[in-house]
Amino acid sequence: MYIIVGLGNPGREYQDTRHNIGFCVLEKLASEEKIDILEKRHKAIIGKGIIAGQKCILAKPQTYMNLSGQSVGELVNYYKVDEKAELIVISDDVSLEPGQIRIRKKGSAGGHNGLKNIIAVLGHDTFIRVKMGVGEKPAGWDLADYVLGRFSSADMKIMDEAAGRASKAVRTILSEGADTAMNRFNGAKKEKKESE
Asked: I need a labelling partner for 100 at 20 to 30 A (CA). Which of 19, 47, 169, 184 fits?
């Protein structure tokens, strides 16, 4: 069984902000797979279904970003998954261009408070993450203001297309493994052709 977590902040005021791109990708995946994310459990709203032949729990933590680990820790313990292989966390990343995807199997939080809290709760940094580029903050901007801001309409189009690619990347992780997904999706803003 896999637990797929999209990071974000609950509440209408945070909807469609850069920091909530994890929620957006999870919702895209859920709608494509006809999974309802409605059940309130483990400090999250969750949905259950089969994706690419694998049993999956889709989860949107409701703890606010900085305490995401509280929900992830509960989910991992309750469903007894091997978080090093069966936990996938989707988050925003300011060091990547808008629409760029980077899949990693381990690594530091890179200044992301949600990932930082998950690493602190799990006690290690070895879990699969799908990072979604939201672009660097402009000079002179406060980082919190930037990530809690909304995309321009041009960027929104890019992000919507990227969310579709990210949901494909998650399916690839489930069906073919993280290494294959990394080779296929990392770096490029457009999907690589099978022949490349």
From this structure: 47
Write out the E strands in 68-187.
Answer: 87-93, 101-104, 128-133
Query: Which among 179, 189, 178 has a CA at the least distance from the CA of 4?
Result: 178
Residue 173 CB neighbours (<10 A): 25
Indicate which residue of 19, 42, 112, 124 is catalytic: 19
Residue ranges in the chain assigned as alpha helix (H): 21-32, 68-79, 83-86, 113-122, 143-147, 153-176, 178-185
> What's the first-to-final CA gap in the chain, in angstroms?
31
**Residue-wise pLDDT tens digits, 107-136:** 999 999 999 999 999 999 999 999 999 999
Residue from 84, 9, 1, 82 nearest 44 by CA: 9
Kindly give the interhelix angle for 21-32 and 153-176, rounded to the nearest 10 degrees.
60
Residue from 186, 182, 175, 183 nearest 33 by CA: 175
State which H helix or E strand residue 39 sits in: strand 39-41
* 42 noted as active-site residue: no
Three-state DSSP class for 95?
coil
User: pTM of the full predicted structure?
Assistant: 0.94
Pairing of strands 101-104, 87-93: unpaired
| pLDDT > 80? residue 77 | yes
Distance CA 120, CA 139 (A): 30
